Task: structure prediction
Amino acid sequence: MIELRGVRAIYGRTIALDQVDLEIGEGITGLFGPNGSGKSTLLRIIAGLQRPARGEVRFDGRPRHPADENLRRRIGYAGHDVGLYGRLSIEENLRLFAALWGAPDDHVTHVIETIGLADRAASRVDELSAGLKRRAGVARALACAPEILLLDEPFATLDDEAADLVTSAIQTWHSPGRTAVIATHG
Ligand code: ADP
Ligand code: MG
Result:
């Protein structure tokens, strides 16, 4: 269970989030809102990539400690930046991140297949189209077999077929006890 209590985020004079109280339980939760409504900020704060100006995030009732490596391992985040090494292939990237997160190596192959990247697994990331990069970024988050999955606009720039593959990869990842938050504009 993820809880936000009185979370505020500011950028200069812009208040991006103010007094956000939120409880997110098991299952897949959608975060909807127009551009600029604070979805990315909220996900980065939950992921621990950004500190709130006020308030706190709790996991299973406990406030997060910035240096909590165990918590970090439980979270898979895919944001606007692809977060992969451009000069490495998709598969090399995924194996690297899975190893860092302590996920089993054969899981990488499984994720590459379910998300439909098998025929591009050996391609360098900096040679991919925007849509393939986005899918590879989601694959990285899934390859870490996280208990908490945070996806920021995972369907952006994807055609219908690719969006369906991402959806089925998320469904394959999902099982009891796991929590996903997926931001989509609209
Ligand atoms: P969303 O993801 O819903 O589009 P964001 O969280 O990206 O919303 O942005 C929320 C607000 O914070 C917007 O007004 C945006 O302009 C502002 N903002 C986001 N990131 C930054 C930043 N790095 N510097 C300044 N302002 C920012
Ligand atoms: Mg955003």
Q: What stands out?
A: The longest strand covers residues 14-24. Residues 59 and 109 are 30 Å apart (CA to CA).
